[in-house]
Design brief:
By secondary structure, the protein is an alpha+beta fold. The protein has two domains: 95 residues, Orthogonal Bundle (Helix Hairpins), CATH 1.10.287.40; 311 residues, BirA Bifunctional Protein, domain 2. The protein has 13 helices and 18 strands. The radius of gyration is 27 Å and the shape is elongated. The relative contact order is 0.15.
């Protein structure tokens, strides 16, 4: 929930924020709605005070008991009616506030779409081949690693079977990243992959990204709650501390979530349907951090350095983008994307993201901490960043490390995780 008092006190600043995001939001109507709610609340409180005064008077003025009782009953009827009005107004204001975006950092580029993203750095050499290269689909078919045809029969488009050594390569990749992140102080968690609505509203994915999420109807659920398949373990991990007050001495708290992820890809239907680049189901290791209000900015840079370290260890060429106002979600304060080079399309493809949401999610989920200096209760800052996923990094490894005879060289850092196997497809 965005802080309505902040908006009231910094209206001009927040209007600039909305304009930079190219959003059409009537801020005055929201502030008016808040004023109306406050007026109704005042009326309700006044009536409650009068009812309490009457109740106290009845105790000492028995001669007027009947008259006072009638007045009390009349006020009770009025209070119930006003309480109903207050609830309606509060619910409407709540829904409006849920649609408000986060603030944006001063160094976020302004743009209307991905064309406004700015390259921060480019690292690694693009491979040069002296033979006609294959894309990941042809490499997968040649070496019996991917089956798209049968997954289409079983599940439809944007699904896949990974097979044989590619399965082993995925687990090698995940074990390598998992080991690295644990050594850096992250606690591994396997979270639930079905969550209630509050987790999605709280992390900012609802209401505006609801069409991206798969829903299980309440009639099929044991406790009759609607449940939703997660698109990232960020959702259950951030929600893990909902309604808690953390101790600042325990911050930062660093988790890594290992989960399946499910996305409907509404808006991308018909795009990137070939292969495993854009799919409905994938696996991911996600970094999540809870910090105090001062350290989240430097922690975001630390998370980026970890992401770069992983790609450097894999010897994959990549670049880093500072994402613009028109290509980030509502909860984003600042975001980096990291993209790896894919030879078959001669372009960089996103494999990692890195987002600081400051206190946007913690306000919605009521996650706070006690300041160690003055004891004040403040909202934590939350960050999330990709450790690794299975699909696009596998594409990048397959294509960048392919050999003339159609095999795939295992990146040196993964060989020990592959039982010292150096090539995939060598026995095909």
């Amino acid at each position: 929930m965005f802080n309505i008092e902040y908006i009231r006190n910094h209206k001009d600043e927040y209007l600039i924020n909305i304009k930079k995001r190219s959003l059409n939001i009537n801020l005055d109507s929201i502030l008016k709605l808040h004023d109306e709610k406050l007026e109704i609340q005042k009326n309700f409180d006044d009536i409650q005070k009068r009812r309490n005064d009457i109740a106290d008077k009845i105790k000492t003025d028995l001669s007027s008991k009947d008259k006072l009782s009638r007045q009390g009953k009349d006020l009770k009827i009025k209070s119930l009616k006003i309480q109903e009005e207050l609830q309606i107004k509060s619910d409407l204001l709540y829904r409006k506030l849920l649609e408000l975006p986060n603030l944006i950092s001063d160094d976020m580029p302004e743009g209307i779409d991905e064309s406004g993203n700015i390259e921060v750095k480019k690292v690694g050499r693009m491979p040069k081949f002296d033979f006609k290269i294959l894309d990941h689909i042809d490499l997968g078919i040649r070496n019996d690693l991917i089956d798209i045809d049968k997954s289409a029969k079983v599940s439809g488009s944007r699904f896949y079977y990974l097979k044989n050594d590619l399965v082993l390569l995925q687990f090698a990749l995940f074990n390598f990243v998992l080991s690295k992140l644990i050594s850096k102080g992250f606690t591994p968690i396997i979270p639930p992959e079905l969550v209630k609505e509050r987790a999605l509203f709280g992390t900012g994915y609802f209401p505006l990204e609801e069409d991206q999420i798969y829903k299980l109807e309440s009639k099929n659920i044991e406790d009759k709650n609607n449940l939703y398949l997660i698109g990232t373990s960020e959702v259950p991990l951030i929600s893990y501390h909902q309604d808690e007050i953390l101790d600042e001495k325990d911050l930062p708290i660093k988790y890594i979530g290992i989960s399946h992820c499910f996305r409907s890809e509404v808006g991308s239907w018909g795009k990137d349907v070939k292969g495993i680049k854009r799919v409905h189901q994938f696996e991911k290791i996600e970094m999540v951090v809870f910090s105090n209000e001062d350290d989240s900015y430097s922690i975001q840079e630390e998370l980026l350095s970890i992401e770069e370290e992983i790609l450097n260890d894999l010897n994959l060429p990549y670049h880093v983008l500072n994402m613009c106002t028109g290509d980030v979600s509502m909860q984003t304060y600042k975001k980096y994307d990291v993209e790896v080079y894919v030879p078959s399309v001669n372009e960089y493809v996103e494999v990692m993201s890195n987002t600081n949401t400051i206190d946007y999610q913690s306000r919605r989920l009521n996650i706070r901490y006690k300041d160690k200096e003055n004891g004040k209760i403040k909202f934590v800052h939350t960050l999330n960043a990709t450790g690794i996923t299975n699909t696009r990094p596998l594409i990048a490894i397959m294509e960048n490390f392919q050999t003339k005879d159609g095999r795939i060289k295992v990146p040196d850092v993964l060989v020990s995780f592959m039982g010292n196997k150096e090539f995939i497809g060598e026995n095909i």
